[in-house]
Recover the amino acids of this structure.
């Protein structure tokens, strides 16, 4: 994933189908770091938006955490789309959450009380701000929706690291059901490799669609190919909350 807000916000396209052939593995480029996002916004925002963002980040750093019914930085999250533009709002919100040192309580409040845009920003921020599995209830809630932009954010690096195998398989199937490209599923090659149960579930889904006279999503074949790869022992991961992990 490149250092662009498109990588944070990319909406799923239509799934295409045709005769099954071998496919290259989905793109698994690293998630942009917080420093990368800040540099990108500094480069692309107009002067007024940059000034607003600098002020919002300073405010959040000066008054972190939750304060009363709503914290000043939560107000800035709501303003980010208008101030920075839709193309840059997700990245701006992630940076504000980091500057506010938002912990699990703050992230949970923003997620459940915020707009869909703010929920998506929380999901993007999780790998940077939460080192353990405490935020999985937010992921699980997002995976129950049919909002494809929320689903795309929910299958990112935090989910790849912490979601159980059973729930992760169903998340992959949910992407296929809703047309979210599997390119959005972080660490898909690593987690799908050698997963016979995922292969069985994909085969059942393909058979159901075929029996109903419906086409099989192209992405299903891509994931099925990955399950035939030998499993890879993952390298040890050290979690670095608050922006040091990318």
């Amino acid at each position: 994933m490149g250092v662009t807000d498109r990588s944070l916000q990319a909406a799923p396209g239509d799934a295409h189908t045709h005769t099954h052939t071998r496919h290259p593995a989905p793109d698994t480029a690293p998630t942009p770091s917080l420093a990368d996002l800040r540099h990108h916004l500094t480069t692309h925002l107009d002067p007024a938006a940059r000034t607003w963002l600098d002020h919002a980040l300073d405010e959040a750093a000066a008054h972190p955490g939750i304060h009363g019914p709503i914290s000043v930085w939560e107000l800035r999250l709501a303003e980010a789309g208008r101030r920075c533009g839709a193309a840059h709002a997700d990245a701006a919100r992630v940076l504000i959450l980091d500057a506010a040192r938002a912990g699990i309580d703050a992230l949970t409040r923003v997620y459940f009380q915020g707009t869909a845009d703010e929920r998506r920003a929380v999901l993007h921020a999780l790998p940077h701000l939460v080192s353990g599995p405490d935020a999985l209830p937010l992921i699980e809630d997002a995976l129950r929706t049919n909002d494809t932009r929320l689903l795309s954010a929910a299958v990112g690096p935090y989910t790849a690291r912490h979601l159980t195998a059973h729930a992760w398989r169903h998340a992959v199937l949910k992407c296929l059901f809703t047309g979210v490209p599997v390119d959005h599923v972080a660490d898909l090659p690593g987690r799908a490799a050698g997963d016979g149960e995922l292969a069985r579930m994909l085969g059942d889904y393909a058979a159901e669609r075929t029996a109903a006279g419906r086409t099989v999503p192209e992405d299903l074949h891509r994931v099925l190919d990955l399950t035939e790869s030998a499993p890879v022992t993952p390298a040890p991961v050290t979690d670095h909350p608050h922006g040091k992990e990318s």
